[in-house]
Every structure is written in C-alpha cells, then in structure tokens.
Amino acid sequence: MIDERQTEKIRGSAARRRSVARLLAVQALYQIELNRLDPSSTEVDAVIGEFVKHRLGQEIEGEHYGEADRLLFVDIVRGASARRGDIDGMLSEALSEEWPVHRLETILRAILRAGAYELLARRDIPPRVVISEYLDVAHAFFAGKEPGMVNGVLDRLARLLRAEDLGPDRGGGAAPR
Questions:
Q1: pLDDT per position in the chain (177 positions), as tens?
Q2: For 94-113, b where at least 16 C-beta lie within 10 A, e where not — what string?
Q3: Going by fewer Cβ within 10 Å, which terminus of the chain is more open, N or C?
Q4: Contact criterion met (CB below 8 Å) for 131 and 151
Q5: CA–CA separation, 30 vs 85, rounded Å?
Q6: Cβ contacts of residue 51 below 8 Å, gap of 6+?
Q7: H helices present in the chain, as ranges
Q8: d(Cα 173, Cα 14) in Å, to the nearest integer?
C-alpha cells in the first residue's frame, strides 16, 4: 500500500517531468525559429527527434536535464509549431502595440507560444498551472521585466480562452484588454 508521503513523491516527480518537458519544448521552439524551419514541415519532427535522443534525461555541459514527460514535450512542440500563425495572432491581441510579436526576443516568443498553445489546446491542464509553469521558464532565462510580461500576457490569454476555468477575477491578475 502506498502511503501519503509516497503519493506526494510520485506526484512531485510527475510534475517535475512536466516542468522539464516545458523547458525543453521552449528550447526546441527556439531552435526551430532560429534555424528558420518551416513549422509545418518534417524538419520540426527532426528537431523533436534530436531533443528526445540527445537532451531528454541527459547531462549537457554539466547540467542534468532530468527526466521529461516525452508526450507533453512532443505535443507542445508540434502543436505550437503547427498553430504558430493562430497563436501569434492571439499573442498580438494580448500584447501592446509598442511590442508586437516580431519585436520580442526569440526565446520570449518561444515561451509565449508554448504557454499560449497549452492554454488553447490542453484543457486538461488548469490555466493557473500553465501560467505558473511558463513564469518559471521565463525566470530561467530572464532576470528583468520579461517574466512579468509572460505572466501578464498569458493571464490575458487565459481570461479570453479559459475564463470558465479561472473563476471570477479578484484583481490578482492582469485585466483583459
């Protein structure tokens, strides 16, 4: 019989694998955009294959990536790539006119695209979890105002796409435009 402590450990390790999958998905999306790969081509599958073979659960330059939820990783990369046009349109609506999608740093675009994809397509994951996870990813890459931007943009999208999952706005997040 599994006790409460063991159950928490199992949950924690599953959550950790999903967090690692999100971080690696952002890196894969970054690589896809940086190499100007056609998001609807088999080149995306080649990048996914490279990550699965060489990065998931591997140690690179002294940093251990840990186990990743492979299915979530693949879904985010394929889904965000395939729906990039729609996602960029949604992001443009959530961003200010001074900061259109194309002006953002490539890694920031990758973070927002991955988070937006999960809000749009992964109804099994609560929107607050999605926002929190990508806020953590943003903190892994940025020390400035960028994590706040990720929080605000994903909160706006969540309120537009998944308002029923958030409940009433208590003033804690960004208001929709």
A1: 445 554 344 445 888 899 999 999 999 999 999 988 777 768 898 999 888 887 776 655 555 556 889 999 999 999 999 999 999 999 999 998 888 899 999 999 999 999 999 999 999 999 999 999 999 999 999 999 999 999 999 999 999 999 898 876 544 444 333
A2: bbeeeeebeebeebbbbbbb
A3: N
A4: yes
A5: 16
A6: 24, 27, 28, 73, 77
A7: 4-34, 42-54, 70-82, 84-94, 106-121, 127-141, 146-161, 163-166
A8: 27
CA separation for the pair 45, 158 (Å, rounded):
28
Sequence spans of domains, the chain: 4-166
Distance CA 56, CA 74 (A): 11
- The tokens describing 167, both together, are 């409940």
Q: For 4-166, CATH number?
A: 1.10.940.10
Neighbours of 2 (CB within 10 A): 8
